[in-house]
Amino acid sequence: MGPVPLVEPEAEGMSPTARRALQERRLRRLLTRLLDADGVQAARLRDAGVGHAEEIGLDDLPALPFVTKQDLWDHYPFGFRVDDRIVCVHGSSGTGGRPTLVPYTAHDVGVWAGVMARALGGAGVTRSSVIHNAYGYGLFTGGLGVHHGGMRLGATVVPLSGGMTERQVRLIADLGPDVLCCTPSYAIHLGEALRDSGTTSPFRVGVFGAEPWTGGMRRQIEELLGIRALDVYGLSEVIGPGVACESLDSDGMLNVAEDHFFVEAVDGDGRPVPDGTPGELVFTTLTKTGMPLLRYRTGDVAALAPPVPGGPRTLRRMSKLLGRRDDMLVVRGVNVFPTEVEAVVLGDARVGPHYLVVEDRRDAGRPELHVVVESAHDVVADLTAALRERLGITCRVAVVPAGAVPRAETGKARRLVRWDGGPPPVAGLTGPGR
Ligand code: DLL
């Protein structure tokens, strides 16, 4: 593989010492903006004893207060806004239908375009590329994030948004795009639709994110579409996609755009964990102006790492997401991340890529984990054994025919459902007689 050029070399390739000085300057400017705005975060800073930004350096960050999703909900819709020059709003519908809204200034949109251009450039996308963008356009940041970044790079963006798969297949056949951007689950769905229509995949590379996916899913996508599949991470509260992204040369980890988004990883009590140890990601938006956040606790779990030694990119990296703090299931006392189930399921070549984990809480005293897979083979015994080996608990494996697990054509795949009572969440799941 040849070298992958940097899109913003002064930022992506700067010496870590110079970057730290830049981050510290930007942190003080951020604190000044927050204190001047005199909003929720200013009050908390004053309570923590911070009167002037100049008193604070990066080393003091761990002593400053966190912001949580609950805080954003408590001050919904715009209680954390500190600048009224807002040009657009994005957000996520969120769990339980509680939306989170994020106001952006023109400056913020510029930062976003820059970090997404880096993400695409690191995947080998160039000005002559055609990007088939099947992330949803709307409040969700996926569609417009790729759109801004692709245009900043000078590539051609085809704004498909999600859904209407037949039309997508038609445009892929007609335009021959070399880059695919969408959720990993939709990449599989689209890949199967291309195969079924007899269309050869023209793609060279794909940039996938917005939902958890494992190395097993990556291999399936790469085989199905004949591409390199890279990971992009982000969240609306921080900016959208582009907070961190894998590049062709980042050794399977994601380069964090830490000149804009200072990253920490903390344990359950909020204390820093060392590099290599999984922790909850906490971001400080050093340069945002519309709704800047100091120490936002994401709930996402990953391990941090230094840059690739000797590589052109000097940004710190994070592992693929290992899970979410609130996604972690505790089944009969054992902690289980759904991504671990995926790793086992996709490790069996006889099983299709669409699966569902059902957390069965119908009997609160005897919770069960069902794993519903699509296969033409009797894989129950083998999968049960492999899951027991990996997770330390016995799951109930149900095999259903191809097509029986619900697909997400738009939005994020739902791979984990809770079953508290009533009919089973997927046909074919009978479970033990109760
Ligand atoms: O999902 C932003 C995005 C769009 C990222 C397109 C990548 C591509 P939200 O809708 O606010 O924003 O959801 C953010 O999605 O906290 C993670 O839990 C999850 N997530 C995002 N990217 C990944 C990823 C967008 N690459 C939440 N792997 C985050 C696993 C991801 N989970």
Low-pLDDT segments, ≥5 res: none
**CATH C-level class of the largest domain:** Alpha Beta
Report the sheet with the most strands, covering strand number, pairing sense and barrel closure.
9 strands, mixed
Q: Please report which band the strand proportion falls in: under 5%, 5-15%, 15-25%, 25-35%, 35-45% or over 45%.
A: 15-25%
CATH topology value of the largest domain: Rossmann fold
How many strand units? 21
Helix content: 25-40%
Assign the structural class, choosing from mainly alpha, mainly beta, alpha/beta, alpha+beta, or little secondary structure.
Answer: alpha/beta
Distance between the termini: 57 Å
Please explain how this structure is put together.
By secondary structure, this protein is of the alpha/beta class. The protein has two domains: 9-17 and 68-321, 3-Layer(aba) Sandwich (Rossmann fold), CATH 3.40.50.12780; 328-419, GMP Synthetase, Chain A, domain 3. 29% of the residues lie in helices and 25% in strands. It is built from eleven helices and 21 strands. The chain has helices at 9-12, 16-37, 40-47, 69-74, 106-122, 141-153, 165-175, 184-196, 215-225, 338-345, 380-391; strands spanning 86-92, 100-105, 130-133, 156-159, 179-182, 205-209, 228-235, 240-246, 254-256, 261-266, 279-285, 296-302, 304-305, 317-318, 323-324, 329-331, 334-336, 351-360, 368-375, 396-400, 416-419. The relative contact order is 0.12. The model has no long low-confidence stretch (mean pLDDT 94). 5'-O-[hydroxy(phenylacetyl)phosphoryl]adenosine binds at residues 92, 135, 140-142, 145, 209-212, 231-236, 240-241, 298, 300, 321, 324.
